[in-house]
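Figure 2 data, in text form.
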Amino acid sequence: MARFNCIPPVTGTIGPVCIYQMYGRYFMRTRSSLTGKRVKKDPAFRKTMLYAALLGKASRIGSKIYAALPAERKRHTLYRKLTGEAMTWLKYEWKEEEIITYLLKQYGQPVIKLQQEPKVVALRAPFGHKSQRLRDRKGRSVEPIKEKKLPLSLALYRLHDRAFRRQYNQSLTTYPWSEYVMT
């Protein structure tokens, strides 16, 4: 995949090359050998088309359930979840009516508004330095690895070794062959 450094004159497919924009940059690649006609007719893509048909049916079921929900419950993520569950049950060969009744039973419950409780004022901790805890990818706190204290003899050895290396490296800044370099 090649990247354009300037704006190309056109985007789209020109001969064997496809030019497109992604993340604000322009890229160029070779044209795909797949066509829509081949994907729809070729036996190699039979399962792809089967799952596409199932997803279309699941989407229609999900939209029916989503339309029946109250406005407070409607979120796009819920629609996607409904469609995914409908897809799962269609794979298990459930009928459309069974899926709709099941999903309505699961998600169609009206929202019950409870009496509002009085606001509770939370007291803040006194201002101070908040310790930062390390967290792993799942958000769990991780204890930092404590450094082991070195024995005195090893610490002194390292200290003297550093001083020796500094002194030795300073003596190497004048090169013996610098006198012979032709200018």
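Caption note: The first helix runs from residue 36 to 41.
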